[in-house]
Amino acid sequence: MLAIIFAAALTATAPAADTTPRWAQVSVGNDHACALDAAGRAYCWGNNHSAQLGARTPEHCGIVGESGHRSCYPTASDTPVAAGGTMRFASISAGRARTCGLSGDGHAFCWGADVPGAADTCLTGTRCSFVPLPYEAPRRFRALAVGSRVTCGVGMDGEALCSNVLRGDRWWELGALQPVRPGARARDVNGFADWPTENVCMVDERGAAWCRGSNRTGQLGAGAPAALGEAVDSLVHVAGGVPFTRVVVQDGWACGRDTGSRVWCWGLRASKEIFQGSPPGGCVRRACAPSPVPIAGALRFREIGAHHGRVCGLTAAGEAYCWAPTAGEASASDASADYAAVREQPDLRFRALAGNVEFGSGSCGITVDGALLCWGVVNRAERRQIVHPHAGAR
């Protein structure tokens, strides 16, 4: 998966001097990643089996089968290739087998698997497009996040929108967006969907957080009297009265950044199963925090985001930290101690950070001087790579 992104990794301890062009935004998908330069031009790298790079890379063809058909698909690229043609984007989101970008006026354009209007045929006969095609026109967006099985966004009018969760082998579909809470205005909305967990959380214009879906480890954050362990189809209010700016959803837990830049988490507290009895709060076989608790330490974050199995954030000084429920037993008395932040890439400072919520084991960040750096576990070794555009891409 993401290993292909980091296959050409460097072991340098600091970015090279030649880091042009300066990068503005980066997004990490299932097995590819994309970035925008300062002019809004898109570059993508990684797997391209469903045209998610937005470029026609050389094809690889297998042997002829019994039906007389030989399957061919575009090969991967270890280096960034130009995507989006002549279009310029204000933001970009890499998902699973597709990529979407927002134009300067908020219109969405997507390429890759199952994009509406796609005319090409990619892996397993899936319809795909190598060029950006309109998505959800004429709607305009403030933000759009393309996930594996759920896509969410905030409209220009503040309406929170998400697609229905894709089930089974329908991962290639790009479904229509539906209002999360009709009539409400939102600051943020995010989703996670990977069996058996399905969750969507939104922050309304007043800062109140609302979640729906799975609640097996208290990840709705509603506390009592919400029924722990039972899925809830309608939105429920996250307890505690903390005003949030953003909520990030993970597998069995969630975190929110409040208006004072502190981070609170709820849901799963520890990975170790409890086989005798249930912990306070009613979670079965797992320790959980059914209401938000502040993460350990006095750190403040200007942004947070989902990385596979973790939540990561940037401080005002550009320091990157990540945290997840403790890998062992939960703390007996202090739930906050179960979410301990650890510094990432301590020799560097960043102005942007990105990971993928559902898949992959790597992260990417844009350093304060505009260089793009990706790191992760590759071939069982920790590597990192300074990303440059493909020579002659534009």
Task: Write up this protein.
This protein has strands at 23-28, 32-37, 42-46, 59-64, 70-74, 77-83, 91-94, 98-102, 108-113, 120-121, 127-135, 141-146, 151-155, 160-163, 177-179, 186-194, 197-204, 209-213, 232-237, 244-249, 253-258, 263-268, 288-294, 303-307, 310-314, 320-323, 342-344, 350-354, 362-367, 372-378, 381-387. The protein is mainly β. The chain has one domain (84-366): Regulator of chromosome condensation 1/beta-lactamase-inhibitor protein II (Methylamine Dehydrogenase, Chain H, 7 Propeller). A 5-stranded antiparallel β-sheet has the order 7-8-9-11-10, with no helix packed on it. Strands 1-2-3-6 form a 4-stranded antiparallel β-sheet, with no helix packed on it. A hairpin with a 4-residue loop joins strand 17 (197-204) and strand 18 (209-213). The two termini are 27 Å apart. Residues 1-19 have low confidence and may be disordered.
